[in-house]
Amino acid sequence: MGVPTAIAVTSADLALPPQDERTMPAVVLPDLGTQPLEQSLATLQSLTDQHGHVIVVCSKAVSEGVARRLHTVRSLLESDRIALFRPDLPPLGLAVLARQLRQLASCDLSPGVLACAGRLLTHYLHAGALLGSVARLDRVPVGLTSHAKSWVPGSQFAVLAHPVPQLARIGHETTLAGPEFATSMLVAKGQLQSDWITATLAKAWNVQGLRETPLPAESPQWWGTGRLIEFCTFLPDLSVLYQLVASVRQSVCHWCGIDVIGDRCVFCSATAPSLAPTSSASSTSFASSASSVHENQLPAG
Q1: Torsion sign across C-alpha atoms 191, 130, 159, 208
Q2: Which domains does the chain have, with CATH numbers?
Q3: Could you give the CA distance from residue 37 to residue 10 in angstroms, rounded to a whole number?
Q4: Backbone angles phi and psi of 252, in degrees to 5
Q5: Diameter of the chain by CA atoms?
Q6: What's the pTM?
Q7: What is the separation, in whole angstroms, between the first and last Cα of the chain?
Q8: Could you report the per-residue pLDDT of 99-158, keeping only the tens digit for each?
């Protein structure tokens, strides 16, 4: 196996500590929105020369300047070896997904399959937060009643942003619908004091391991408040992650020729011609294609 594909993130707080001894280091691309263009070009060119392919995992909460810079650099380098992956996940969930890709980067997966694996693995993440207010929350549907209650002193709200949006005001034994398989949980505390996630939610979800990490800098903007505690559950074991990815049928991208899984190439964004008319519906089959491994590898939750 050659040099592993580089997994890059746009800030240091999205580079979580290694999950295991095989987790590859994250490449941090800081200050993309403010540094000279020549510096960004040199950095990405060096990464592609060294690693062959680069997967940049980027939050949709980053500034427009950062997003524009990434697209500009990729365009100027005329490179089909740089993938810009921006899943619709909260910042902590994004950091967890980037770490899972760093785990898989040590395996014998081709760059295209590894990049597409990010889309598959999002289906197995449950990402949310406990919020002190939902008055400025625009990432998850919020009813007028919840908005009104958010102005009541002491109100707290449990919110699940992914995979299916949920919102509930914290009360006696309040919980959320969670994963139906055993997971680990990562918790990042902001300016809110509560043990609801660790004492109630983690127990209801049968969490097998729980750790804390600093809150990502983008989280208050994403959730609309700094009074929050963010959480994400995930599959921690590399063997399970690998089997999930390896169980999906591979094909060749008709546009750039790279090996892929699923219906879309993350490097060139081309959609498989036979699946193009129903690409929105195909994401469900993309995740369910690994269901047999899911059932066999994961203990009941």
Answers
A1: positive
A2: 6-124+237-297 (no CATH), 126-234 (3.30.1180.10)
A3: 15
A4: -110, 130
A5: 58
A6: 0.88
A7: 36
A8: 999 999 999 999 999 999 999 999 999 999 999 999 899 888 877 566 656 667 788 999
